[in-house]
Amino acid sequence: MNPICKLFNIKYPIIQAGMVWCSGWRLASAVSNAGGLGIIGAGSMYPDVLRAHIQKCKLATQLPFGVNIPLLYPNIQEIIDVVVEEKVKIVFSSAGNPATWTSFLKEKGITVVHVIANTKFAIKAQDAGVDAIVAEGFEAGGHNGREETTTMCLIPMIKKVVKIPVIAAGGIGSGKAMLAAFALGADAVQIGSAFAVAEESSAHQAFKHKIIAATEGDTKLAMKKLVPVRLLKNEFADAIANAEAEGASQNELATLLGHARAKLGMFEGDIEKGELEIGQVSAMLNEIKPARAILEEIWQEFKVEITRLTQVQNELDS
């Protein structure tokens, strides 16, 4: 049995990424009900809001789901308390030191997965005792690795240095890309952008339409002096790019970023002044549809491509 399917007790080795302002209980439960692993993104939620989403998700699905927790969250203790009190069984941690909370969470019977972008932190996460890691390449939306290592290069490098299961992320929005990740050694895939445009995604409709209208080159990694983040081009992204080109300091960039900029764009729908976090795969997305349809199309294409490559192999061997 696939190690990730066994670890999470899911049908398909497909995980929906925990995305700020996009992945609430509706999306998480829809993905879980379709056979994948849905993730509630706690990064944009106050503790009481997270609790409400977890409780609604429990009512919407009897299948496993998880919560993504950025470890640099200012109210981290309260968030952890909510997860434990609500008996969440799976936590994906990110943006921080996995050694801080992994042991505590595992003592509570929680399966822990940590998101990394380089071999150093992959080893660190394994040493901290996590059950699996997400190796996220440069193509991914949202916060990104400073090394700018692509998924194609990152996955085989990570597989060489860890023994725990590896979930590939970054630039994966199709069955073909999923198969490529498996060929590189991944045990499963985590998909964000493709689910950001799902009907059940809590992203604003204006943001969803901006995503499906995106073409090649419409995203760019920005704010490297703060925390690198991949953004969809708009007035705000242009302002950041211009400031960086003029040598803006961290403080100047932080001032330009301001407060709740991601909420403004992704949740409230100001597609010019807001921060729009999305991956390069946005250029391949062209339709808003149910999460189940997205997952099933990816899985079916994955199987079709396995058959096609088997035929290619037979032709080459004949």
Keyword list:
single chain, three-stranded antiparallel sheet, eight-stranded parallel sheet, 11 strands, alpha/beta
Q: Please count the beta strands (DSSP E, at least 2 residues each).
A: 11
Number of helices: 14
Give the SSE string: HEHEHEHEHEHEEHEHEHHEEHHHH
The overall average pLDDT, rounded, is 96
Report how far the terminal alpha carbons are from each other.
31 Å
Low-confidence stretches are none
Biggest sheet layout: 8 strands, parallel
- Strand percentage, roughly? 5-15%
- Helix fraction, binned, reads 40-55%
Helix and strand composition category: alpha/beta
Query: Looking at the structure, what is the overall shape?
Result: globular
Give a brief rundown of this model.
By secondary structure, the protein is α/β, with parallel strands linked by helices. Helix content is 44%, strand content 15%. The model has no long low-confidence stretch (mean pLDDT 96).
Topology:
Elements: H1 3-8, E1 14-16, H2 25-33, E2 38-41, H3 47-60, E3 65-70, H4 76-85, E4 90-94, H5 102-107, E5 111-116, H6 119-128, E6 132-136, E7 142-143, H7 151-161, E8 166-169, H8 175-183, E9 188-191, H9 193-196, H10 205-212, E10 219-222, E11 229-232, H11 235-245, H12 250-257, H13 261-267, H14 291-317
